[in-house]
Amino acid sequence: MSIQRRSLLQALAAAPVAMPALTGVTSSLAPTASSAASSSPKQPNTYQVKDFGAKGDGTTLDTKAIQAAIDAAAKTQGTVIFDGGVYTTGSLFLKNGVTFRVDQGVRLQGSQNIEDYPLLPTRVAGIEMTWPAALINVYQEQNVKLTGDGIIDGNGKVFWDSYWNLRRQYDPKGIRWAADYDCRRPRLIQFFEAQNVRIENLSLYRAGFWTVHICYSQDVTVYNVIIRNNEGGRGPSTDGIDIDSSRKVLVEKADITCNDDALCMKAGRDSDGLRVSRPTEDVVIRDCIIRDAAAGVTFGSETSGGFKNVKVSGIKVYHPTPVGILFKSAQTRGGSISGIEISDVFMQDVPVVMRVNLNWYPAYSYAKIPEGIKDYPGYWKTLSTPVPKERGIPQLSDVYVHDVQAVGAKTAFEISAYPEKPLKNFRFERLHLDAWAAGSIANAEDFSFKDVTLLSLDGKSVDLKQSKNVRGL
Question: Do residues 108 and 150 lie in contact, with contact meaning Cβ atoms separated by under 8 Å?
């Protein structure tokens, strides 16, 4: 990595990011004469939500009025617009050909009543099941654009609290794995079986669950979005952008603060994911900033359908994010991961530069119904369906990591797999890693390191275990 590039990254790290104020009170976004949304003249083929009865006062439930504007716009492939204000709403469903414009001075605020999010067939956390719709849905539609400089706020703390309350009941019973499925929390934005969809320039706050979920979709662009999920608390499982069994996806210029994976590839869980067998493929992620998350770039843990042809570049990851590059799965997930390229990454005070953990979080990853529980939902059976070991261990190969700089790390590598399915053909080039410890690599074959500078303060080299043909260390 060049000196010039390092200087640019350090300058970006130091520069403050302008963010819309989030006070948690509706009066902070009261309409003003100077707001962009209020002052913009109405253009032809636009549909103003207040013409359909929306109030935008922060207390009235405006779902029906906004949906009426969307339905009208769909008839002419028009644009839905808002006057400045706070619009409280439940689930909205964007339709073919609609542009949905949330301008500066507009906040869409999610209802805190779960009844305002209708149940729909979808996939959640790797299995197909019925689940509450998201706040904004592109559900089996195409040619949709979601744009503007305004705010979409999930108002999700009530759902975070309900999750933690359930965990306090479930963890002592040995059913921690069920909590994420039983506590039905709305995602912020869902693209499901959608095509040719674009979201741009918006600020996304306080998702009740995942923020942007792209599932069974293709030709999707996420551009220049700000995600802030740690306002007023730290929302559990508030992933930033999840790309789930989808193809031809571009994510560019996302600035993310969340309390789980920031940029995440998914492809189904265990027996259900193996049944569906749809990969995530042809994905480009570039020029993103991760300020606080469980990991910067994540593959898994839902790997059953596999990943291929994924290119990640221009990523900056900062403390307190604990891991920069993460591959995670379990011995019941299965799936093939190959054709991954990760480049031009800068990490500042991120404890672990790269981790591969294929036995991740057993209390969540391995579902087993205790004998004393007789009455349970059908998806518990799906989750607990055994997967033969020969199908359950994932295979990782053909991973190329290059041009990475890490400053202030604790460990460079925490990489391991299973002896019966070692990691194969990983290439590392032009790495400059400043870490306390070099770390370890286990169950690896055909790993190559070229032009790698590893400044381990403990003076030890990478600990190689049960590996062969590892060159350049």
Answer: yes
Rounded Cα distance, 292 and 339, in Å: 27
* 3-state secondary structure labels for all residues of 215-258: ECCEEEEEECCEEECCCCCCCCCCCCEEEECCEEEEEECCEEEC
pLDDT score for 12: 37
Helix (H, G, I), strand (E, B), or coil: what is residue 12?
A: helix
Give Cβ neighbours of residue 40 (< 8 Å, ≥ 6 apart).
Answer: 81, 103
H helix and E strand count, the chain: 9, 33
- Report domain 3-17+39-471's class: mainly beta
Question: Which SS3 state, helix, strand or coil, does residue 413 take?
Answer: strand
Per-residue DSSP letter, 40: S
The two structure tokens encoding residue 442: 């286990």
- Domain spans of the chain, in order of start: 3-17+39-471
| Beta strand 212-215 pairing with 241-244 | parallel
Whether residue 22 is predicted with pLDDT greater than 90 in this model: the reply is no
String of DSSP letters for 260-282: SEEEEEE---HHHHHHH---EEE
Token pair, residue 125, equals: 């956390």
Contacts of 14 (CB under 8 A, 6+ apart): none
Measured CA distances, 268 to 123, 194, 245, 329 (Å): 8, 18, 7, 11
CB-side neighbour CA atoms (13 Å) of 346: 19
Q: Please say if the pLDDT value at position 87 is more than 50.
A: yes
Summarize pLDDT for 278-290 with one digit per residue, the tens: 999 999 999 999 9
Q: Residue 328: how many CB atoms within 10 A of its CB?
A: 25
Q: Residue 294 and residue 290: Cα distance in Å, rounded? A: 10
Q: Are 435 and 455 in contact (CB under 8 A)?
A: yes
The kind and range of the H/E element at 83 are none
45: left (phi over 0), alpha (psi -120 to 50) or beta: left
Position 419, amino acid: P
Count CA atoms closer than 13 A to 193's CA, side-chain side: 8
Question: What are the backbone angles phi and psi of residue 180, rounded to the nearest 5°?
Answer: -65, -25
pLDDT digits (tens, 9 = 90+) for 104-117: 999 999 999 999 99
